[in-house]
Write a structure and sequence with these properties.
2 copies of one chain form a homodimer. Chain A has 2 domains: about 50 residues, Orthogonal Bundle (Arc Repressor Mutant, subunit A); about 140 residues, Tetracycline Repressor, domain 2, CATH 1.10.357. Helices cover about 70% and strands about 0% of the residues of chain A. In chain A, helix 2 packs across helix 3, helix 2 packs across helix 7 and helix 8 packs across helix 9. The longest helix of chain A has 26 residues. Chain A is elongated and about 60 Å long. The termini of chain A are far apart. Chains A and B meet through helix 7, helix 9 and helix 10 of A and helix 7, helix 9 and helix 10 of B. The structure holds a DNA duplex (30 and 30 nucleotides). Chains A, B: It holds the Pfam family TetR_N. Chains A, B: InterPro entries: DNA-bd_HTH_TetR-type_CS, Homeodomain-like_sf, HTH-type_TetR-like_transc_reg, HTH_TetR, KstR2_TetR_C, Tet_transcr_reg_TetR-rel_C_sf.
DNA sequence: CTGTCAATACCGACCGGTTGGTATGTTGTC
DNA sequence: GACAACATACCAACCGGTCGGTATTGACAG
């Protein structure tokens, strides 16, 4: 008889584990979630989890990669087009807001635990994130020096007013809410770019 | 012999415990910090901690109150003056940025753990925070309807671009850094209010 | 088409260590 | 000698992680 689950299961076991971990980390935080809770929600056992993942931390790292990997690739595509600062900044805001909203649970889990993760495994990922921010700040700085953007606020403040929204997006954005992510992105871009109008 | 610490200690034991907990929670997060770590850093034992606090959670609640209590009182004072929206919003931004910066460690601990705390003890505090946000949004909405502020972005987005900065302030603000909190507040207010200029 | 065999997928009992919390001192002060 | 202010010793529960085992699968041989 047996079970032949590999074919019959609704989704791959690995994916179920990751999905369960994502929900729980987003709800309770990483440290407050036990491996037992994860496997219970995923419908597997600890043996199964440790068959696919080397450690509990690997689950977080995987989410981290999912969130930042796509965003970083999109950033390079947008900047690579070489268009004017206003278009570029608007495209970046749109991508990060819509992209974050599309992975809102992963973002919630990651953004909360980001500061606490300070071992060598995550330094590469944090360096990626820093590069993202530096790119945006550099873009704003260059445009301000060229007189395209007004120097009403420093590049640091402008970039943080953007990232601050995406970092806290999970506390108020609802996928089934009245305002779609694209609308949020547009309003934020309008607000920031009006403020920066030379 | 004995120790007669009550008088000789550099600071009250209760304050030392709270300060140690604040630092550790800000660095590692609440759940990842053990009571043993707190008492070690504070230079006391667990018996001492549980003499002053009923539970580990009480430490977080105390920080929560310290952060939001002052802010909420200041909000009422500012709004109570009945001045024009531009002055009022600028005063609010200045107070929340400078106030958050002044308690940056407490803010880091609280802002990270806020979403995960969902028991009945914290609902009152979360209600206070929601009232704060609602006040700011209402202020913006009224001013936009009166034509004083431009409707370039909805009150929700504007308020979140402000709170997003303060929520993530702990990730980049340094008390001994080159930019004082008051300057950050002014730039943020300039950016937002320029965007809202009718 | 069937038998063999190694690899993969997964289970569930178990491990040493740590957790938040407590019960019981001990000590100085009024 | 009552009481606040702590220290010390200790507990049951739970933690992340391991391990020996088993069911299932796929490749290959004949």
């Amino acid at each position: 008889m047996g079970r032949s689950r590999t074919v019959a299961g609704v989704a791959g076991v690995r994916e179920r584990i990751l999905a369960a971990a994502t929900e729980l980390f987003a709800e309770q935080g990483y440290a407050a979630t036990s491996v037992q809770q994860v496997v219970d929600r995923a419908g597997v056992t600890k043996g199964g989890l440790y068959h696919y993942f080397g450690a509990k931390e690997d689950l977080l790292i995987e989410m981290y990669r999912a969130v930042f990997g796509e965003r970083l690739a999109a950033l390079d595509r947008i900047v690579g087009q070489g268009r004017d600062p206003e278009w570029t900044l608007r495209a970046i805001i749109d991508d990060i807001v819509v992209g974050t909203a599309a992975m809102i649970k992963e973002s919630a889990a990651v953004s909360r635990e980001l500061a606490a993760m300070d071992n060598e495994r995550t330094q590469r990922l944090q360096a990626d994130w820093r590069r993202y921010q530096e790119t945006v700040r550099g873009l704003i700085r260059d445009a301000q020096e060229a007189g395209v953007f007004a120097a009403v606020a420093s590049p640091e403040i402008v970039s943080w007013s953007i990232f601050g929204v995406t970092n806290s997006l999970h506390t108020w954005y609802r996928p089934d809410g009245p305002k779609p992510a694209a609308a949020i992105a547009e309003e934020l871009a309008d607000l920031v770019l009006t403020g920066l109008r030379a």
